[in-house]
Amino acid sequence: MKEKDSVSFSHENSLVDLFSRTISYLRLSLTDRCNLRCLYCITEDETTGKLSKLSHDDLLSYEEMLRIVRIAVDMGISKLRLTGGEPLFRRNVMHFIKQLAALDKLDDIRLTTNGVLLDKYGSQLIEAGVRKINISLDTLQRSRFKQITGKDYFQRVWQNIEQAIEMDFSSVKVNMVVMRGINDDEILDFARISLEKDVQVRFIEFMPVGSSTSWRSDTYMSMAEIMKRIETLAPLHALAANRLEGPARTFRLGENPPGTLGFISPLSHNFCDRCNRLRLTSEGKLRSCLLSDAELDVREVLRQGGSDELIGQTILNATRNKPKGHALGGQAQGESCYGRMSRIGG
Ligand code: SAM
Description:
The chain is α/β, with parallel strands linked by helices. The protein is 27% helix and 17% strand. The chain has helices at 62-74, 93-101, 118-128, 142-149, 154-166, 187-196, 223-230, 298-303, 308-320, 341-344; strands at residues 25-29, 79-83, 108-113, 132-136, 171-178, 200-205, 236-238, 249-253, 260-264, 277-280, 285-287, 295-297. A twelve-stranded mixed beta sheet has the order 7-8-9-6-5-4-3-2-1-10-11-12.
Protein backbone atom coordinates (compact mmCIF):
# COMPACT_ATOMS: atom_id res chain seq x y z
CA MET A 1 0.00 0.00 0.00
CA LYS A 2 1.29 3.46 -0.81
CA GLU A 3 2.27 5.64 2.15
CA LYS A 4 -0.35 8.30 1.41
CA ASP A 5 -3.11 5.71 1.40
CA SER A 6 -2.47 4.40 4.88
CA VAL A 7 -5.01 5.16 7.53
CA SER A 8 -3.60 7.21 10.36
CA PHE A 9 -4.88 5.04 13.18
CA SER A 10 -1.48 4.47 14.58
CA HIS A 11 -1.87 2.20 17.61
CA GLU A 12 -1.81 -1.58 17.36
CA ASN A 13 -5.57 -1.89 17.51
CA SER A 14 -7.75 1.16 17.61
CA LEU A 15 -10.90 -0.95 17.56
CA VAL A 16 -11.82 -1.12 21.22
CA ASP A 17 -15.45 -0.65 22.09
CA LEU A 18 -17.06 1.10 25.04
CA PHE A 19 -17.00 -2.12 27.06
CA SER A 20 -13.26 -2.69 26.54
CA ARG A 21 -13.77 -5.44 24.00
CA THR A 22 -11.10 -5.47 21.31
CA ILE A 23 -12.61 -6.00 17.88
CA SER A 24 -10.33 -8.14 15.74
CA TYR A 25 -12.72 -10.27 13.69
CA LEU A 26 -14.67 -9.18 10.63
CA ARG A 27 -17.36 -11.27 8.98
CA LEU A 28 -17.82 -10.26 5.39
CA SER A 29 -20.93 -11.25 3.47
CA LEU A 30 -19.85 -11.47 -0.18
CA THR A 31 -23.34 -11.71 -1.60
CA ASP A 32 -26.94 -12.17 -0.51
CA ARG A 33 -27.46 -14.71 -3.32
CA CYS A 34 -27.38 -18.39 -2.63
CA ASN A 35 -27.68 -21.64 -4.53
CA LEU A 36 -29.88 -23.06 -1.75
CA ARG A 37 -33.22 -21.82 -0.44
CA CYS A 38 -33.08 -22.79 3.21
CA LEU A 39 -36.49 -22.37 4.73
CA TYR A 40 -35.14 -20.51 7.76
CA CYS A 41 -32.76 -18.20 5.95
CA ILE A 42 -33.91 -16.92 2.57
CA THR A 43 -36.87 -14.62 2.97
CA GLU A 44 -39.43 -13.18 0.66
CA ASP A 45 -40.16 -9.54 0.10
CA GLU A 46 -43.21 -8.76 2.19
CA THR A 47 -44.91 -6.73 -0.53
CA THR A 48 -44.04 -8.63 -3.71
CA GLY A 49 -43.87 -12.16 -2.26
CA LYS A 50 -40.74 -12.71 -4.38
CA LEU A 51 -37.32 -13.59 -3.04
CA SER A 52 -35.63 -10.45 -1.76
CA LYS A 53 -32.41 -9.84 -3.66
CA LEU A 54 -30.05 -6.92 -3.77
CA SER A 55 -29.60 -5.29 -7.14
CA HIS A 56 -26.14 -5.39 -8.67
CA ASP A 57 -25.65 -1.70 -7.82
CA ASP A 58 -26.60 -2.21 -4.22
CA LEU A 59 -24.04 -4.92 -3.76
CA LEU A 60 -20.54 -3.82 -2.81
CA SER A 61 -18.09 -4.46 -5.63
CA TYR A 62 -15.00 -6.55 -4.88
CA GLU A 63 -12.93 -3.41 -5.19
CA GLU A 64 -15.05 -1.67 -2.56
CA MET A 65 -14.90 -4.68 -0.26
CA LEU A 66 -11.16 -4.90 -0.63
CA ARG A 67 -10.73 -1.25 0.28
CA ILE A 68 -12.89 -1.52 3.40
CA VAL A 69 -11.15 -4.72 4.49
CA ARG A 70 -7.71 -3.18 3.93
CA ILE A 71 -8.62 -0.21 6.12
CA ALA A 72 -10.15 -2.47 8.78
CA VAL A 73 -7.03 -4.63 8.78
CA ASP A 74 -4.89 -1.52 9.22
CA MET A 75 -6.99 -0.72 12.27
CA GLY A 76 -6.53 -4.12 13.89
CA ILE A 77 -8.78 -6.68 12.22
CA SER A 78 -6.71 -9.85 11.95
CA LYS A 79 -9.29 -12.49 11.24
CA LEU A 80 -11.71 -12.43 8.33
CA ARG A 81 -14.56 -14.83 7.63
CA LEU A 82 -16.16 -14.91 4.21
CA THR A 83 -19.83 -15.71 4.28
CA GLY A 84 -23.06 -14.80 2.49
CA GLY A 85 -25.54 -15.80 0.95
CA GLU A 86 -23.25 -18.41 -0.48
CA PRO A 87 -19.78 -16.86 -0.82
CA LEU A 88 -18.63 -19.38 -3.43
CA PHE A 89 -21.66 -18.51 -5.55
CA ARG A 90 -20.40 -15.03 -6.36
CA ARG A 91 -18.67 -14.76 -9.72
CA ASN A 92 -14.84 -14.53 -9.72
CA VAL A 93 -14.72 -15.30 -6.05
CA MET A 94 -11.27 -16.89 -6.18
CA HIS A 95 -9.72 -13.83 -7.76
CA PHE A 96 -11.12 -11.74 -4.91
CA ILE A 97 -9.93 -14.19 -2.25
CA LYS A 98 -6.41 -14.07 -3.69
CA GLN A 99 -6.46 -10.29 -3.47
CA LEU A 100 -7.53 -10.50 0.16
CA ALA A 101 -4.83 -13.03 0.89
CA ALA A 102 -2.24 -10.62 -0.49
CA LEU A 103 -3.11 -7.98 2.10
CA ASP A 104 -0.33 -7.41 4.60
CA LYS A 105 -1.25 -8.28 8.17
CA LEU A 106 -4.21 -10.45 7.19
CA ASP A 107 -3.13 -14.03 7.65
CA ASP A 108 -6.35 -15.62 8.81
CA ILE A 109 -9.07 -15.93 6.17
CA ARG A 110 -11.84 -18.44 6.84
CA LEU A 111 -14.93 -19.44 4.94
CA THR A 112 -18.46 -20.49 5.79
CA THR A 113 -20.15 -22.36 2.96
CA ASN A 114 -23.03 -24.68 2.25
CA GLY A 115 -20.47 -26.97 0.61
CA VAL A 116 -22.22 -27.32 -2.75
CA LEU A 117 -19.34 -25.79 -4.72
CA LEU A 118 -16.45 -27.20 -2.71
CA ASP A 119 -15.73 -29.83 -5.37
CA LYS A 120 -14.92 -26.94 -7.71
CA TYR A 121 -13.12 -24.65 -5.28
CA GLY A 122 -11.64 -26.80 -2.47
CA SER A 123 -8.06 -27.02 -3.72
CA GLN A 124 -8.05 -23.43 -4.97
CA LEU A 125 -9.09 -22.26 -1.51
CA ILE A 126 -6.22 -24.11 0.11
CA GLU A 127 -3.82 -22.73 -2.47
CA ALA A 128 -5.05 -19.20 -1.74
CA GLY A 129 -4.44 -19.73 1.97
CA VAL A 130 -7.96 -20.39 3.27
CA ARG A 131 -7.23 -23.20 5.70
CA LYS A 132 -10.31 -23.24 7.89
CA ILE A 133 -13.77 -23.90 6.60
CA ASN A 134 -17.17 -24.33 8.16
CA ILE A 135 -19.72 -26.27 6.19
CA SER A 136 -23.40 -25.91 7.01
CA LEU A 137 -25.46 -29.07 6.98
CA ASP A 138 -28.74 -29.49 8.83
CA THR A 139 -29.69 -33.03 7.89
CA LEU A 140 -28.15 -36.33 6.82
CA GLN A 141 -31.26 -37.40 4.95
CA ARG A 142 -31.53 -36.72 1.25
CA SER A 143 -35.28 -36.07 1.17
CA ARG A 144 -35.14 -33.81 4.20
CA PHE A 145 -32.21 -31.91 2.74
CA LYS A 146 -34.44 -31.16 -0.21
CA GLN A 147 -37.26 -30.04 2.06
CA ILE A 148 -35.03 -27.74 4.10
CA THR A 149 -32.90 -26.30 1.30
CA GLY A 150 -35.20 -26.60 -1.70
CA LYS A 151 -32.45 -28.44 -3.63
CA ASP A 152 -31.48 -32.08 -4.13
CA TYR A 153 -27.79 -31.59 -3.33
CA PHE A 154 -27.34 -33.78 -0.26
CA GLN A 155 -25.09 -36.36 -1.87
CA ARG A 156 -22.89 -33.74 -3.46
CA VAL A 157 -22.50 -31.82 -0.20
CA TRP A 158 -21.78 -34.96 1.80
CA GLN A 159 -19.18 -36.09 -0.69
CA ASN A 160 -17.61 -32.65 -0.60
CA ILE A 161 -17.47 -32.76 3.20
CA GLU A 162 -15.76 -36.15 3.12
CA GLN A 163 -13.30 -34.85 0.58
CA ALA A 164 -12.63 -31.65 2.52
CA ILE A 165 -11.74 -33.71 5.60
CA GLU A 166 -9.13 -35.56 3.54
CA MET A 167 -7.71 -32.36 2.09
CA ASP A 168 -5.13 -30.02 3.58
CA PHE A 169 -7.53 -27.80 5.48
CA SER A 170 -6.31 -27.32 9.03
CA SER A 171 -9.87 -27.32 10.28
CA VAL A 172 -13.19 -28.53 8.88
CA LYS A 173 -16.31 -27.94 10.91
CA VAL A 174 -19.83 -29.06 10.14
CA ASN A 175 -22.50 -26.71 11.48
CA MET A 176 -25.99 -27.96 12.21
CA VAL A 177 -28.74 -25.52 13.20
CA VAL A 178 -30.98 -27.54 15.50
CA MET A 179 -34.70 -26.99 14.96
CA ARG A 180 -37.21 -28.87 17.06
CA GLY A 181 -39.66 -30.83 14.97
CA ILE A 182 -37.55 -30.29 11.84
CA ASN A 183 -34.21 -32.02 12.44
CA ASP A 184 -33.82 -32.61 16.18
CA ASP A 185 -34.30 -36.35 15.63
CA GLU A 186 -30.89 -36.31 13.90
CA ILE A 187 -28.87 -34.85 16.78
CA LEU A 188 -27.40 -38.24 17.68
CA ASP A 189 -26.58 -39.07 14.06
CA PHE A 190 -24.67 -35.81 13.79
CA ALA A 191 -22.87 -36.43 17.11
CA ARG A 192 -21.82 -39.89 15.85
CA ILE A 193 -19.98 -38.29 12.92
CA SER A 194 -17.35 -37.14 15.44
CA LEU A 195 -16.80 -40.80 16.40
CA GLU A 196 -15.86 -41.63 12.84
CA LYS A 197 -14.27 -38.59 11.29
CA ASP A 198 -11.66 -35.96 12.13
CA VAL A 199 -14.10 -33.12 12.10
CA GLN A 200 -15.79 -30.81 14.58
CA VAL A 201 -19.56 -31.12 14.48
CA ARG A 202 -21.19 -28.02 15.89
CA PHE A 203 -24.72 -27.65 17.14
CA ILE A 204 -26.08 -24.13 16.83
CA GLU A 205 -29.14 -22.76 18.57
CA PHE A 206 -31.76 -21.57 16.13
CA MET A 207 -31.93 -17.76 16.25
CA PRO A 208 -34.82 -15.44 15.48
CA VAL A 209 -33.21 -13.62 12.58
CA GLY A 210 -35.16 -12.23 9.62
CA SER A 211 -38.76 -11.14 9.59
CA SER A 212 -40.23 -14.17 7.86
CA THR A 213 -38.17 -17.15 8.93
CA SER A 214 -39.65 -20.25 10.47
CA TRP A 215 -38.28 -19.39 13.93
CA ARG A 216 -40.81 -19.85 16.70
CA SER A 217 -40.10 -20.37 20.35
CA ASP A 218 -41.23 -23.99 19.99
CA THR A 219 -38.80 -24.72 17.13
CA TYR A 220 -35.96 -23.41 19.31
CA MET A 221 -33.96 -25.95 21.31
CA SER A 222 -31.48 -24.93 23.98
CA MET A 223 -27.90 -26.12 24.14
CA ALA A 224 -28.62 -27.81 27.49
CA GLU A 225 -31.33 -29.93 25.93
CA ILE A 226 -29.18 -30.80 22.91
CA MET A 227 -26.32 -31.86 25.19
CA LYS A 228 -28.60 -33.95 27.35
CA ARG A 229 -29.72 -35.88 24.30
CA ILE A 230 -26.13 -36.47 23.20
CA GLU A 231 -25.15 -37.69 26.64
CA THR A 232 -27.49 -40.64 26.17
CA LEU A 233 -24.93 -41.84 23.61
CA ALA A 234 -21.72 -41.45 25.63
CA PRO A 235 -20.27 -39.02 28.19
CA LEU A 236 -19.21 -35.59 26.99
CA HIS A 237 -15.74 -34.46 28.12
CA ALA A 238 -15.08 -30.71 28.02
CA LEU A 239 -11.99 -29.59 26.11
CA ALA A 240 -9.90 -26.58 27.07
CA ALA A 241 -11.30 -23.35 25.65
CA ASN A 242 -9.34 -21.91 22.76
CA ARG A 243 -9.88 -18.18 22.56
CA LEU A 244 -9.11 -18.13 18.85
CA GLU A 245 -11.87 -20.57 18.15
CA GLY A 246 -14.67 -18.20 19.07
CA PRO A 247 -17.79 -18.84 21.05
CA ALA A 248 -18.17 -22.62 20.75
CA ARG A 249 -17.82 -24.77 23.85
CA THR A 250 -16.06 -27.90 22.72
CA PHE A 251 -16.22 -31.50 23.93
CA ARG A 252 -15.21 -34.96 22.91
CA LEU A 253 -17.75 -37.73 22.96
CA GLY A 254 -16.54 -40.81 24.79
CA GLU A 255 -12.91 -41.97 24.64
CA ASN A 256 -10.46 -40.95 21.90
CA PRO A 257 -12.83 -40.12 19.07
CA PRO A 258 -11.17 -38.64 15.95
CA GLY A 259 -13.50 -35.65 15.97
CA THR A 260 -14.98 -33.22 18.47
CA LEU A 261 -18.32 -31.57 19.18
CA GLY A 262 -18.96 -27.86 19.55
CA PHE A 263 -21.97 -26.06 20.96
CA ILE A 264 -22.92 -22.51 20.10
CA SER A 265 -25.61 -21.02 22.26
CA PRO A 266 -26.25 -17.40 21.28
CA LEU A 267 -29.60 -17.40 23.05
CA SER A 268 -29.33 -19.57 26.16
CA HIS A 269 -25.76 -18.56 27.12
CA ASN A 270 -24.83 -15.59 25.06
CA PHE A 271 -21.16 -14.78 24.63
CA CYS A 272 -21.64 -11.03 24.17
CA ASP A 273 -19.07 -10.17 26.85
CA ARG A 274 -16.39 -11.86 24.70
CA CYS A 275 -17.72 -10.79 21.31
CA ASN A 276 -14.91 -9.47 19.13
CA ARG A 277 -16.87 -9.20 15.86
CA LEU A 278 -17.99 -6.69 13.35
CA ARG A 279 -20.03 -7.64 10.31
CA LEU A 280 -20.01 -6.08 6.87
CA THR A 281 -23.16 -6.92 4.94
CA SER A 282 -23.13 -7.52 1.21
CA GLU A 283 -24.53 -4.04 0.57
CA GLY A 284 -21.97 -2.32 2.72
CA LYS A 285 -23.62 -1.88 6.10
CA LEU A 286 -21.48 -2.26 9.17
CA ARG A 287 -23.30 -4.19 11.84
CA SER A 288 -21.83 -4.51 15.27
CA CYS A 289 -24.24 -7.14 16.61
CA LEU A 290 -25.84 -9.98 14.66
CA LEU A 291 -29.02 -9.65 16.66
CA SER A 292 -29.41 -5.89 16.53
CA ASP A 293 -30.54 -4.05 13.42
CA ALA A 294 -28.43 -0.94 14.10
CA GLU A 295 -26.14 -0.52 11.08
CA LEU A 296 -23.82 2.13 9.67
CA ASP A 297 -23.68 2.69 5.94
CA VAL A 298 -20.04 2.53 4.92
CA ARG A 299 -20.94 2.08 1.24
CA GLU A 300 -22.49 5.52 1.23
CA VAL A 301 -19.33 7.04 2.72
CA LEU A 302 -17.24 5.28 0.11
CA ARG A 303 -19.46 6.15 -2.86
CA GLN A 304 -19.61 9.80 -1.79
CA GLY A 305 -15.85 9.86 -2.32
CA GLY A 306 -14.95 9.42 1.36
CA SER A 307 -11.26 9.19 2.20
CA ASP A 308 -9.68 6.16 3.87
CA GLU A 309 -9.72 8.21 7.04
CA LEU A 310 -13.47 8.74 6.86
CA ILE A 311 -14.09 5.07 6.13
CA GLY A 312 -11.87 4.24 9.10
CA GLN A 313 -13.90 6.64 11.21
CA THR A 314 -17.10 4.83 10.18
CA ILE A 315 -15.56 1.51 11.22
CA LEU A 316 -14.59 3.10 14.50
CA ASN A 317 -18.11 4.47 15.00
CA ALA A 318 -19.60 1.03 14.37
CA THR A 319 -17.23 -0.33 17.01
CA ARG A 320 -18.19 2.38 19.48
CA ASN A 321 -21.88 1.66 18.81
CA LYS A 322 -21.50 -2.02 19.61
CA PRO A 323 -24.17 -2.86 22.16
CA LYS A 324 -23.15 -4.46 25.43
CA GLY A 325 -25.24 -7.47 24.57
CA HIS A 326 -28.35 -8.56 22.77
CA ALA A 327 -31.67 -8.78 24.51
CA LEU A 328 -32.93 -12.06 23.13
CA GLY A 329 -33.14 -14.98 25.52
CA GLY A 330 -34.11 -18.56 24.84
CA GLN A 331 -37.77 -17.68 24.96
CA ALA A 332 -37.55 -14.67 22.68
CA GLN A 333 -41.34 -14.65 22.32
CA GLY A 334 -41.48 -13.54 18.74
CA GLU A 335 -38.90 -10.80 19.15
CA SER A 336 -36.40 -10.91 16.36
CA CYS A 337 -34.05 -8.84 14.34
CA TYR A 338 -35.22 -8.12 10.84
CA GLY A 339 -32.02 -7.99 8.86
CA ARG A 340 -32.04 -10.96 6.50
CA MET A 341 -29.48 -13.64 7.40
CA SER A 342 -28.57 -14.04 3.75
CA ARG A 343 -27.24 -10.50 3.55
CA ILE A 344 -25.73 -10.45 7.05
CA GLY A 345 -24.02 -13.81 6.73
CA GLY A 346 -24.66 -15.38 10.13
N1 SAM B 1 -24.21 -20.07 2.60
C1 SAM B 1 -23.28 -20.22 3.64
C2 SAM B 1 -23.64 -21.40 4.52
O1 SAM B 1 -24.65 -22.05 4.25
O2 SAM B 1 -22.88 -21.68 5.47
C3 SAM B 1 -23.03 -18.99 4.50
C4 SAM B 1 -24.19 -18.17 4.92
S1 SAM B 1 -25.30 -18.89 6.09
C5 SAM B 1 -26.39 -17.52 6.37
C6 SAM B 1 -24.30 -18.96 7.53
C7 SAM B 1 -24.81 -19.82 8.64
O3 SAM B 1 -25.91 -19.19 9.26
C8 SAM B 1 -25.28 -21.21 8.23
O4 SAM B 1 -24.62 -22.17 9.02
C9 SAM B 1 -26.74 -21.19 8.56
O5 SAM B 1 -27.20 -22.45 8.95
C10 SAM B 1 -26.76 -20.21 9.71
N2 SAM B 1 -28.08 -19.65 9.97
C11 SAM B 1 -28.92 -19.06 9.11
N3 SAM B 1 -30.06 -18.66 9.73
C12 SAM B 1 -29.92 -19.03 11.02
C13 SAM B 1 -30.74 -18.91 12.18
N4 SAM B 1 -31.93 -18.32 12.12
N5 SAM B 1 -30.27 -19.39 13.34
C14 SAM B 1 -29.04 -19.98 13.43
N6 SAM B 1 -28.22 -20.10 12.37
C15 SAM B 1 -28.65 -19.65 11.19
